[in-house]
Amino acid sequence: MNRPEEGTLVRVPAGGQALEGNLAVPGNARGIVVFAHGSGSSRHSPRNRAVAAMLREGGLATLLVDLLTPEEGAVDEETARLRFDIDLLAERLVDATDWIGEAEETRGLGVGYFGASTGGGAALVAAARRPNSVRAVVSRGGRPDLAGAALARVHAPTLLIVGGHDPVVLELNREAFDRLRCEKDMAVVPGATHLFEEPGALEEVARLARDWFLRLLPTAGAGAPIARPRNSEVRG
């Protein structure tokens, strides 16, 4: 059962499937953030739900959607294959973005993506496929390297957030960062490991994401010029 602050249960049509999600739209919403889960996670991820709650406190709508159906999720639990099917996950995100543009509650809101783990790669591929719809991307402990050649085609300003004690993922993010041609930034959270379970680490992720989205979603227009890249500002 949904708690009221987490929104209502919705079914998002995507690729001939109906994906379950939780949509929450605060009054006078300043944009909407779609969460792209990865690596066996779902819309029930406590970490992403915590980040979503802080975004809503900042006046942003949120859509936490399962990118796999329950049947696909069961297969993935056995094989761990679909969580790395970046094209499939990205196409589901694109369909969810199109649905947002048509739904009465969300029509006209600037769209951002918040991707975690493999969902970070999927979010960047989807952003490259919808350059006129997606205004900002944030990746938390993500795998932007999995976006491959799509990295160079991403127009949406992108923030990569990585734990300082997550060395393998940190190096993958640094390599992917160099390949991005959009406005970009990278934040390293000191002392944080891959899941940001350390005291205060997830709160820092949420703060960084909230500030990024609030700067970009309410003001950037679909036809706005592409921002020029700037140098990395690694904090931590």
List keywords for this structure.
236 residues, alpha/beta, Rossmann fold, 8-stranded mixed β-sheet, 6 helices, 8 strands, globular, disordered C terminus
Count of helical segments?
Answer: 6
Low-pLDDT windows of residues = 219-236
Number of structural units classed as domains: 1
Question: What distance separates the N and C termini?
Answer: 39 Å
Structural class: alpha/beta
Oligomer: single chain
Work out the helicity level: 25-40%
CATH-defined topology: Rossmann fold
The description of the largest β-sheet is:
8 strands, mixed
Placed side by side, the strands forming the largest sheet appear as 1-2-4-3-5-6-7-8
Count of distinct strands? 8
Average pLDDT reading: 86
Run of helices and strands = EEEHEHHEHEEHEH
Determine Rg (CA atoms, Å): 16 Å
Relevant CATH superfamily: Alpha/Beta hydrolase fold, catalytic domain
CATH architecture: 3-Layer(aba) Sandwich
Tell me the overall shape.
Answer: globular
Task: Report the CATH C-level class.
Answer: Alpha Beta
Q: What proportion strand?
A: 15-25%
Describe this structure in words.
This protein has a single domain (4-216), classed as 3-Layer(aba) Sandwich (Rossmann fold). Helices cover 34% and strands 21% of the residues. It has six helices and eight strands, in the order βββαβααβαββαβα. Helix 5 links the parallel strand 7 (158-163) and strand 8. The protein is globular and about 40 Å long. The model is unreliable at 219-236 (pLDDT under 50).
